[in-house]
Structure formats: structure tokens, C-alpha cells
Specification:
Blueprint: E1 11-17, H1 22-32, E2 38-43, H2 48-55, E3 63-67, H3 74-87, E4 92-97, E5 100-102, H4 106-119, E6 124-133, E7 142-146, E8 149-153, E9 161-164, E10 173-175, H5 179-182, H6 194-204, E11 208-219, E12 226-228, E13 231-233, H7 238-252, H8 259-279, H9 283-299
Parallel strand pairs: 1-2, 1-4, 2-3, 6-11
Antiparallel strand pairs: 4-10, 5-11, 7-8, 9-11, 12-13
Helix pairs in contact: 7-8, 7-9, 8-9
């Protein structure tokens, strides 16, 4: 059954699904069932047959499926799952996208790190794994802004724990009690920058996030990368670029965000605008959607783009 080294602590996995490949989500559940005490799946408008299949699943731990019936965004789905985890008495919630593939001991490694950091007196926002993008090669680094630059926090060894400004949501283990102070995910963002905004908001309130180098996960970004001069660069759809640019601009307008972070991330955003305009397929469509995102971020037009 459960391998967790801290029997007094309840961990609930919250998985957000959206037209999932059932084989992948079943693989994810198979990996998690021995590492958590509860599982909540929040479905963002998949076909009825998919929802019925998910509801028919039997795991060694309690499973709850919450179907939305339409796509209400990843932030809204995560919040619904977190509320269900609270009702289940969870001490920690760990978030997952449907295409993530955690290692068999990932949750345990994260939980061990979280308990140790809290025992040291730190106000913990989240701990997260080191992940490899399935359609890329290198393990993605943890990032932290310093001297107006986004810097990579390297892992000296598998035992290293490094501070980061924010973590990707999938694989993030969050102490439920601290959400009372930090707050839930901002569902106005719908998708993209949700994890960044939450991590930076937590930081502005004195909480810290950490990357745990020994916790490993594979994560499917979902889109084919662009290859330029022999290097692969992540590229999302034009619609996802709309949300990325809109939500980034909205975030820069928030008074609690540090000026240093605005400059460092804003410079990267500008470079991305030029890069995707020049090298992405359907580059004109990418340009239009990124420009629309910038405009909507400036005027505060948020939520789902219909």
C-alpha cells in the first residue's frame, strides 16, 4: 500500500485532466497510488466517455473525480482540487498535469524535504521536482532572479535543495495550511503564468519555494520544439502564447511584484516575442496572438479567450 515515511501526514494528489490520453493518466495513477493517501482528478471538459472511465477506476487509495463539463482553466481546476483535498484532511497537496511522469519515489523525496525545511523554521510555499521535458533533452533548471537576470540554480548533487523564485505547478508539493496566508491560484489567469504568479505572490508574503534535486519527473510540454542552429527551443501554440503574454503583462502591473523581477522577466518576454515572430511556424498568427495578449494584459481583459 503506502510507502510514505511520515504516516502522520496526509498527502493528496490533485490531477487536472483535459481530453487526456487514458494510457498516460493510468500510468500516472499507478505511480502515485503507493505514494499518496488520496487522489482527486478535476476534469476540464473532456468527453463524457472519458469522465465515465475515470469515475469507474478503482485505486488502493480513495479517488474522487470532479467533472467541470467545460474548460474552466487550470487555475480553477487546481483550486477545486485543493478544496477537495482540504475536505479530505490533507496536510499537503501535490499538483499534477495529466502528462507528467513522476519517479516512483518522487512524492516521498519531496515530502522528506518539505518536512525538514519546515522543521528548520522556514515558511514554505512549495517544493518541486527536477523535471525533464519529454520532447527535449536537458533537465529544466530551477530559476531565481538576481541582479536583474533570470539565473539558473544548478544542482550540485542529487541531495541538493536549491531555492527558487517559483516552480512549475506539476509536481509541486504545497503545505495546505500555508494556503490560508498565500491564497489559492488566480483563476483570472486561466492558464500559463499561474504557477509563476502564485510562487511570486508567496515570495512577496515571506514564503519560500525550493527545488529538490533528488526528486525526478518527466513532463510532456505537448508541442513540438523549434530547432534553430541545432538547438531545440520550446514552442507553444499561438493561443498559449496569447495567454503567456497577456498574463505576463498583467503580472508586471501588480504592485507587490519586485521591480527586479519585472525587468528580468520582461526582457526575456521581449526576446520571446521576437524569436517566435521570426522562427515559429505560422509566425504571423503567433505575432497577432502575442500582440493581442500584450494589449489585453495592459487593459486587464482576463479569463478565458472565447
Amino acid at each position: 500500500m503506502n510507502d510514505i515515511s511520515f504516516p502522520g501526514r496526509i498527502v493528496c494528489a490533485v490531477i487536472v485532466s483535459f481530453h487526456p490520453e487514458l494510457e498516460k493518466i493510468l500510468c500516472l495513477l499507478g505511480t502515485l497510488e503507493s505514494q499518496v493517501q488520496n487522489v482527486v482528478i478535476v476534469d476540464n471538459g473532456s468527453h463524457d466517455s472519458v469522465v465515465t472511465c475515470l469515475q469507474s477506476l478503482t485505486l488502493p487509495v480513495p479517488l474522487k473525480v470532479i467533472p467541470f463539463g467545460e474548460n474552466l482553466g487550470i487555475a480553477r481546476a487546481q483550486n477545486e482540487g485543493i478544496q477537495a483535498a482540504r475536505q479530505n484532511g490533507a496536510d499537503y497537496v501535490i499538483l499534477f498535469d495529466q502528462d507528467s511522469e513522476p519517479a516512483h519515489d518522487m512524492v516521498n523525496v519531496l515530502l522528506f524535504a518539505a518536512v525538514k525545511l519546515q522543521a528548520d523554521g522556514l515558511k514554505l510555499a512549495a517544493v518541486g521536482p527536477r523535471y525533464t521535458a519529454i520532447n527535449q533533452e536537458d533537465r529544466s533548471p530551477f530559476i531565481k532572479v538576481s541582479k536583474f537576470q533570470v539565473k539558473r540554480q544548478s544542482c550540485a548533487s542529487s541531495k541538493s535543495i536549491v531555492e527558487a523564485d517559483c516552480l512549475i505547478s506539476s509536481g509541486s508539493l504545497i503545505p495546505v495550511a500555508n494556503l490560508d496566508t498565500i491564497g489559492l491560484m488566480n483563476d483570472k489567469l486561466f492558464i500559463d503564468y499561474v504557477d509563476i504568479e502564485w510562487g511570486l505572490r508567496a515570495k512577496s508574503k515571506g514564503f519560500k519555494s525550493f527545488g529538490v534535486c533528488g526528486a525526478l519527473m518527466e513532463h510532456d510540454l505537448g508541442d513540438a520544439p523549434i530547432t534553430v542552429l541545432g538547438r531545440k527551443f520550446a514552442c507553444r501554440s499561438p493561443l498559449r502564447h496569447y495567454y503567456t503574454f497577456r498574463n505576463a503583462i498583467w503580472l508586471y502591473r501588480q504592485p507587490w511584484l519586485s521591480f527586479e523581477w519585472k525587468i528580468a522577466d520582461g526582457w526575456r518576454l521581449l526576446l520571446k516575442f521576437g524569436f517566435y515572430t521570426l522562427f515559429a511556424k505560422l509566425r504571423l498568427h503567433h505575432f497577432k496572438m502575442m500582440a493581442k495578449g500584450v494589449l489585453h494584459g495592459l487593459i486587464g481583459r482576463m479569463g478565458r479567450l472565447d
